[in-house]
Amino acid sequence: MPVVDVKHGSLIPKRVAEGVERSRHMERELRAQNERFSAAVENMSHGLCMFDADERMIICNRNYVDIFRLDARVMKPGIRFLDILRHSVDIGIASQSADELYAIRKPYIDGAKASTYEEVLSDGRIIIISHRPLAVGGWVSIYEDVTEHRRAEEELKEQHRLFDAALANMSQGLLMYSAEGRLIVRNQRFLDLCNARAADFKLGMTHRQMLEKLVRLRIFEPIEIDAEVARTKACLQAGQPRSSYRELVDGRTLFVARRPLSGGGWVATFEDVTERRRTEERMIHLAHHDTLTGLPNRSMFRERLDLALEDEAATPFTVFSLDLDRFKAVNDTWGHPAGDWLLKSVADRLQRCLRNETDVVARFGGDEFVIMQFNFKGVANAEKLAKRIVESIAKPFRDKRREMHVGISLGITIFPHDGKDADTLLKNADTALYRAKREGRNLYRFFEPGMDAIVQARRALEVDLETALPRQEFELEFQPIMNIASGEIIGAEALMRWHSPMRGTVAPEDFIPAAEETGLIVPLGEWALRKACAAAAAWPSGLRVAVNASAVQLGSDGFARGVISALAFSGIPAGRLELEITETVLMDESQAVLKALRQLRELGIRIALDDFGTGYSSLGYLRRFPVDKIKIDRSFTRDMRNRDTAAIVRTIIELGTELGIVVTAEGVETEAQLDTLRDLGCIEAQGYLIGAPSKAADIQRLLTSRAQHSRAG
Ligand code: C2E
Ligand code: MG
Ligand code: MG
Fold first, then answer.
1. Are residues 527 and 555 in contact, defined by beta-carbon separation less than 8 angstroms?
2. Which ligand is in closest contact with the Cα of 673?
């Protein structure tokens, strides 16, 4: 298309027109290019500013103006670089003077080589400025606001610092593994826990290598590494945490917890739980053991018993129920520390009596013990153990200052013969024990089906006995005692009777042991003392009253006080009261009992040793505690026709004469017996021949008439 010069209205020659056309085209091209360039510059994410060789601005973009908060009206092309700096100082964005800023930039501008530097603005923002020289002279500067980026970087750095500090100060050891299963973090505490060096556990090691190293360095006890690696892997893959205890070679225990990380990999923490574990173990031990003796306690015994009941290989087995005899006396006399010591010693001896590794001895509390004996091969088996125990416990217990004597009674049940479950077995063992106690202590008894009824009967008796005293069902009878040489009655022994409305008259042998067991003997004995002394007050003066006192009574607090108050109430002099005690009282060697007896004796009360010859008949304690009288048991009197028995009786009488102790023979029923005793030099006699026990009123009549008779004669 021809180009027409509209202004001149003539056609421009073709060549010229072509030239014009070309230059117009170029102009358009240039404009388009400029527009594209401007658009590109404008849309850059960085600030940009271009200067010519005269340091005048050619072009700048919006970002540049924004970064420096410049006035767009000032920022016209052609403005000198220094003026821009001045402007920035004027608006207060620059943190230095324009000259200073210019001086900093001058070398880059003159050097005409690419350079980058940082400028901090007055508002704290950080701008990275890169200069690049232009081939035609001048330069282009690119500006980047890196404030946010820097802050994020700083934050990350701070986070790392905190993380490091946290890691270093953790009480737990920590290892972190990457998704590839390699060690990427390891804190100092981990090394401390393992007493290891950093070089031992380098970053980059795999879980397996770590475990191998821990075992090789003799930190961990040997473990199955394949299995351990597999277990951990399986748990972590399932996204589940896994924890376990790890025993160290030096005896410590670590608690190891592994937790999967969200981005793959996992964290393992290591905690020294040695102390906690020990405490836990102690607590468990405490819950299952008796603190005093260290033996298993009731709950642990029950667990073992239940296990044994389910275990056919353990069947049959026996359960022993054991109870100390005279333990209360030891406790009361020597005090609780001595009682504790004794229980510990008993526990020791019981343990030594067991021959089988699997046998169990436990303490149920107080002086109650139980034993489970396995490998039962017949009654003889259990009998052997029972005998061993009785013999072992019968031996005196000596500590530095004292010697204690106790005995033990045992009740034995056999599984499954005597019971199919734990409760029945234990109950029946108790029943057998009860029987052993009743039959005289220091005994063992096997459970028998009939025993149950006997025990029930005994319990019923105890219950009845409890109400008998307030209901005044007791009475005293008196049996006269005669001086053999003169034939005179010198006094009487008080013997207790129980007239039960349900049972009729119950013999003392049937209710005294039950009263001792329940402790009722203490108030009952005190009642007898008062009653006997009161009765004696009505007798002719000079006649003595003998009252039986049981070991339990003597061991109780306030016994001596009770005796003294009975005397005071009745008004009879101490010399008219005789206390009959048995050998066991002296054998207990309980200091408190001996002290009380000595005190009473000093007041003038006489002490008689009852039933002599039936117990241990050890005369040794006579030296330690001098008694005033020995009463030969009626079984000897009855059997005096036997030469051996006669010899024993003679020996006792001779010994009494030598020691100045009065000897009384009990149970004299015939003239022949009385003659023999007289011949042997026995001083006193008591028995049906002289007079049966009779009511207080009757005995008073008898004594008064005899006294009148003898005065008359
Ligand atoms: P003990 O102290 O040895 O009393 C003597 C026992 O022999 C009495 O039995 C008496 O009745 C009995 N007896 C007396 N003469 C003869 C005889 O010629 N032949 C036979 N076969 N027996 C005779 P009892 O009254 O049944 O008392 C039994 C035991 O009960 C007493 O033996 C004593 O140990 C105890 N006892 C009785 N009363 C009391 C008491 O008040 N307190 C305490 N702690 N025990 C008592
Ligand atoms: Mg007596
Ligand atoms: Mg007697």
1. no
2. 1
